[in-house]
Design brief:
By secondary structure, the chain is α+β, with helices and mostly antiparallel strands. 23% of the residues lie in helices and 31% in strands. The protein has one domain. It has helices at 2-24, 28-35, 98-101, 116-124; strands spanning 47-52, 63-69, 77-83, 86-91, 134-142, 149-157, 165-174, 180-185. Strands 4-3-2-1-5-6-7-8 form an eight-stranded antiparallel β-sheet, covered by helices on one side.
Length: 191
């Protein structure tokens, strides 16, 4: 009897861990759909910005922020924060400069074809990054003259001290077709 209980506990523990891994591995666009559950009808799928915190221990960030257009909010935005694929907070962020810079406009959803996982694969495949131990990434989905684009900042382990990181720079990727708009990378910083 005790053996059956132990097996059942181990099975539940494994299922619980698998669920956390699946939730944590969600892409940014999947989190937009999840975030729709926490905003009003007038804001659903009206994404203004997506950003993440710097990842820790992996290239995929665990903390994401999805900002939606909200005509009822004083600064026209509602933000849903996710951690490990789970909603952590819903707030009305202070976005005072965005109306001046144009970053308060809804992103063109017809051009949102390259999700965060594909953008990361494109960014990390840059030839200058070959032979580097990439350690962290941070994402921004932002407006540009060419349409929505991913900005991905990358870090790598330093060669002389692998426990320390060096910021390598940014790669800008079109969400419409996955082309690299610009790469501002400095692999020499790992030395």
């Amino acid at each position: 009897m005790k053996t059956k209980i132990k097996i059942a506990c181990v099975a539940l523990l494994m299922l619980g861990t698998a669920g956390v891994e699946l939730a944590a591995g969600q892409t940014a666009f999947a989190l937009v759909k999840e975030g729709n559950r926490y905003v009003g009808e007038q804001s659903k799928d009206k994404v203004v910005q997506i950003r993440s915190e710097k990842s820790i221990g992996t290239l995929t960030p665990n903390i994401w922020y999805i900002v939606y257009y909200d005509p009822d909010a004083s600064l026209k935005a509602v933000e849903v924060k996710f951690g490990g694929g789970q909603k952590m907070d819903v707030s009305r962020p202070f976005r005072l400069l965005e109306p001046v810079t144009g970053a308060d406009k809804v992103l063109d959803s017809s051009k949102l074809k390259v999700d965060s996982d594909k953008a990361l694969a494109i960014a990390t495949s840059q030839p200058v990054l070959a032979n580097l131990a990439l350690s962290a990434a941070q994402f921004w989905l932002q407006h540009s003259d060419e349409g929505p684009r991913w900005k991905i900042k990358l870090w790598a382990a330093k060669r002389d001290n692998p426990s320390h990181e060096a910021e390598l720079g940014d790669v800008y990727i079109s969400t419409a077709d996955g082309s690299v708009i610009r790469a501002d990378l400095h692999p020499d910083r790992v030395n």
